[in-house]
C-alpha cells in the first residue's frame, strides 16, 4: 500500500534527500465522524456495526397460509451472517410482537452513525386507501373494518428509520403493498465514496399493490444470488454491490422469469435520506481500490479506502523526541488515501494540463517513481487541480492521519516489526535495490511489500 512506512517522526530520514514534499494524496470524506471500534467483520467494511433483523410470517390465523416465508427469512439471514452481520431471527409474530421487535432493532442496539441496519420481511402485505401495511399473524381478514388497527402501517418505518442513529438502513419486503413515503430512486448509483459517506434509508419490495405474493422463493433466490454475485449485478463495475443495483437487477429479472411478469418490484429511498446507498462489500481483490474520473479524460490516482478507527499516537517505544509525547488516543474518520506516492507520471499530467513547470527527475526516468523536487505550494496546486477535475476534495494527509495509515494497526517501530530488516524500506542500510544501498534513487511505486 505504501512504499515506506517508517512511523515515528525521527525516522523521516528514510525519505529520499531532495524530496521537498512527500505526496500521498487523500480523498477526504469530511462528513464522516470519528467512530468507536468496529464490530463488523466483513471484508473491506468501514461500518462500526452491521445488524440484521429477518422475519418470516406464514401461520396466519385469518389470511392464506404461506409455506416458504420463514425458510426464506432464515436463508437470507444465513447469507448475511457470512457477510459479517449480527442477525436476529423471528417468525410468526403478532402485531404487538412486531412493533416491539422493530423498536428494539432500530433503537435498542448499540448503534452509532457508522452502523448499518438491514431488515428482511417475508409475509403478507396489504393496501388500504393507498397506504401500505404489513400483516401480522393475528390480523383479521382483509375485509374486516378493524384491519387498520390490527396491521402495521408502512409509515411506521418513516419514523423508525429517521430516528435511528444508523447511517445506512435497507428494508426488504417480500410482500405486496403501496407506499407513499419512499421516492423511486435513480437507476444511476452514486460514486462509492458518496454512497458510503451519506446517510440513506432504502427499501425494496417484491410486488406492488393489487398483486399477490408468490410463495415460491423466487424473490429470495434472486436476492441471495445478488449477494453472492452469482449473477451480474454490479452495474457500474466498481466491485461494490449496492441496494440500488440490487433493486435494478431484480426489477429487470422479474420481467423475464416465466410466471413472474405479473409482479412489479418497487425500490426507492426515503425523502431527505436519498444521497447515499446501502453498500455490500464484495469479496474481490480489486474491492479495495477506486479511481475517480477526470473531466479531461482518464482517471485520477488509485485510492484505497481506510476505515475509521482509533490509535495511540506518539512515542510508543519510549525513546523518541519530546514533541512525540505524551502518547494520546486519536480518532480518524473513514477516508480514502493514495495507494502509492504521487508519481512523476501523475504529476506530469497535471503540469501538461495547467502549463505548470515540471520538476526535475535528476535522470531517474520519472514515470512510476514518486515525484521529487515539488514544494508545499506545488502540492497544494496539484490537489486543487484534482479536486476541480473530479468534483471531490483532494488534499494532503494530516500528521495524525499519516501515522494511522502507516501504523496499519501496529504498535512497533515499523509496520513490519521492531527491526529495520532488509528490503522493507528505502534507507541507508536497508538492503533495498534502490536508495543509499544501491543507485541512490527512489523506487518505482508499489514494488516494496505493503
Quaternary structure type:
single chain
Q: Could you tell me the CATH topology label of the largest domain.
A: Rossmann fold
Per CATH, the architecture of the largest domain is: 3-Layer(aba) Sandwich
- How many domains comprise the coordinates? 2
- What low-confidence regions span 5 or more consecutive residues with pLDDT below 50? 1-44, 283-287
Instruction: Report Rg.
Output: 26 Å
Order of helices and strands: EEHEHEEEHEHEEHEHEHEEEEEEEHHEH
Major sheet strand order: 3-2-4-8-10-12-9
Q: Helical proportion? A: 10-25%
First-to-last CA distance = 5 Å
Explained architecture:
The chain is α+β, with helices and mostly antiparallel strands and 450 residues long. The protein has two domains: 9-32 and 286-437, no CATH class; 49-281, Rossmann fold (3-Layer(aba) Sandwich). The chain has ten helices and 19 strands. It has helices spanning 69-82, 95-108, 147-150, 155-163, 192-197, 218-228, 243-254, 344-354, 376-390, 399-407; strands spanning 26-27, 49-56, 86-91, 115-122, 125-128, 131-134, 152-153, 168-176, 182-184, 200-207, 240-242, 266-274, 279-281, 289-290, 303-306, 309-313, 328-332, 335-338, 394-395. The strands form five sheets. It has a seven-stranded mixed sheet with strand order 3-2-4-8-10-12-9, sandwiched between helices. Helix 6 crosses helix 7 (243-254). The longest helix is centred in the C-terminal third of the chain and has 15 residues, at 376-390. The chain is elongated.
Amino acid at each position: 500500500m505504501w512504499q515506506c512506512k517508517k512511523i515515528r517522526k525521527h525516522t523521516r530520514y528514510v525519505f529520499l534527500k531532495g524530496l521537498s514534499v512527500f505526496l500521498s494524496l487523500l480523498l477526504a470524506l469530511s462528513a464522516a465522524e470519528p467512530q468507536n471500534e468496529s464490530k463488523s467483520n466483513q471484508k473491506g467494511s468501514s461500518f462500526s456495526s452491521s445488524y440484521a433483523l429477518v422475519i418470516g410470517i406464514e401461520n396466519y390465523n385469518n389470511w392464506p397460509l404461506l409455506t416458504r416465508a420463514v425458510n426464506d427469512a432464515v436463508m437470507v439471514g444465513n447469507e448475511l451472517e457470512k457477510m459479517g452481520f449480527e442477525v436476529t431471527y423471528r417468525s410468526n409474530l403478532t402485531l404487538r410482537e412486531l412493533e416491539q421487535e422493530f423498536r428494539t432493532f432500530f433503537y435498542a442496539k448499540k448503534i452509532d452513525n457508522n452502523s448499518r441496519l438491514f431488515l428482511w420481511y417475508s409475509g403478507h402485505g396489504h393496501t388500504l386507501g393507498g397506504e401500505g401495511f404489513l400483516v401480522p399473524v393475528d390480523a383479521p381478514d382483509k375485509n374486516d373494518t378493524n384491519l387498520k388497527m390490527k396491521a402495521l402501517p408502512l409509515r411506521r418505518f418513516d419514523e423508525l428509520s429517521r430516528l435511528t442513529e444508523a447511517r445506512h438502513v435497507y428494508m426488504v419486503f417480500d410482500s405486496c403493498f403501496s407506499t407513499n413515503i419512499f421516492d423511486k430512486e435513480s437507476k444511476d448509483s452514486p460514486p462509492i465514496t458518496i454512497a458510503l459517506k451519506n446517510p440513506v434509508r432504502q427499501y425494496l419490495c417484491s410486488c406492488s399493490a393489487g398483486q399477490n405474493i408468490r410463495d415460491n422463493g423466487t424473490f429470495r433466490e434472486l436476492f441471495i444470488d445478488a449477494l453472492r454475485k452469482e449473477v451480474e449485478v454490479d452495474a457500474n463495475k466498481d466491485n461494490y454491490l449496492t441496494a440500488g443495483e440490487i433493486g435494478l437487477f431484480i426489477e429487470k429479472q422479474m420481467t423475464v422469469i416465466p410466471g413472474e411478469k405479473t409482479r412489479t418490484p418497487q425500490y426507492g429511498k426515503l425523502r431527505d435520506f436519498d444521497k447515499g446507498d446501502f453498500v455490500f462489500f464484495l469479496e474481490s481483490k480489486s474491492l479495495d481500490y477506486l479511481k475517480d474520473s477526470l473531466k479531461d479524460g482518464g482517471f485520477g490516482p488509485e485510492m484505497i479506502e481506510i476505515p475509521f478507527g482509533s490509535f495511540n499516537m506518539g512515542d510508543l517505544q519510549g525513546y523518541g523526541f519530546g514533541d512525540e509525547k505524551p502518547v494520546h488516543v486519536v480518532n480518524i474518520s473513514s477516508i480514502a488515501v493514495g495507494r502509492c506516492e504521487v508519481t512523476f507520471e501523475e504529476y506530469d499530467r497535471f503540469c501538461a494540463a495547467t502549463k505548470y513547470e515540471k520538476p526535475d527527475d535528476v535522470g531517474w526516468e520519472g514515470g512510476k517513481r514518486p515525484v521529487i523536487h515539488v514544494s508545499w505550494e506545488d502540492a497544494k496546486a496539484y490537489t486543487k487541480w484534482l479536486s476541480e477535475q473530479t468534483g471531490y476534495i483532494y488534499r494532503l494527509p494530516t500528521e495524525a492521519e499519516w501515522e494511522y495509515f502507516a501504523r496499519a494497526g501496529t504498535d512497533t517501530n515499523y509496520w513490519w516489526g521492531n527491526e529495520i530488516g532488509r528490503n522493507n524500506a528505502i534507507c541507508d542500510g536497508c538492503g533495498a535495490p534502490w536508495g543509499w544501498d544501491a543507485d541512490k534513487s527512489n523506487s518505482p511505486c508499489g514494488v516494496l511489500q505493503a
